[in-house]
Amino acid sequence: IALIMLVLMVQHACIVDQNKYKESDIFEEFETHQGFTILHIPPVLFKIVFSLSDEDKNESKELIDKIKVVKVLFFEEKDNTIKISELNSSINENIKEFQYNLLTRIAEEDNDISIYIIDKEKVINEVLIIIESEKDYLGLNLIGELTKEEVLKVYKLINTQNIQNIEN
User: Residue 143 in contact with residue 24, Cβ under 8 Å?
Assistant: First the structure.
């Protein structure tokens, strides 16, 4: 009986873990569409990209070590692709479906930036950073355990030029 209980508990734990990852794949539906590039970046590469920051190296390293999965969506609107407005509408539906909460919006010169989070018990499990310009769209999905302050620090570390260079 103990062996059966152990097997059932392990099986349930595996199912729950798989469902958790599947629920968080906000970019999945765009993987086959024209104009999209979706990358699953190993956290090691993510650390290398952001190690060039002038911020305190130890603090940045500790912060980035908390990130377990990094997904990036690049989209550039062209004649043969969907429009940014259609993409925005679809992403907004996904944001509602996956129950993201808006943390903050930032307006820059050429970009509108939105930061969404999924938090449970005061710990942020998922961060979605969307950077939208007139013809380009960048989505960055981070999975790990962060606080709101750490999410904002991660945003400050992000240099969109470095991310766009990964695509090319």
Answer: yes
